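Apologies for my clumsy wording, but could you write out the amino acids of a protein and the tokens describing how it folds?
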Amino acid sequence: MFIEAQRKNETSLFLVARVDGKIVDSLGFQGNLRKHIRHSASFKISVLKDYWGLGIGTFLLNMQRKLE
């Protein structure tokens, strides 16, 4: 399962936002393990269209910063 793999990876962070039990937003941050590219990472965020403009993505981004 994707989420379980992210939980076990020490260089990744995966957050979700739920509204009434429904996942409406996800944020993924994946760091690199290789020494020569360890300084780089990939970042992805996805919000269901019905929930755009409500600040949910911004909230998850701010949570990611607090967890660093």
In short: The beta strands are 12-19, 22-31, 41-47. The mean pLDDT is 85. The first strand starts at residue 12 and ends at 19. The helical segments are 2-8, 56-67.
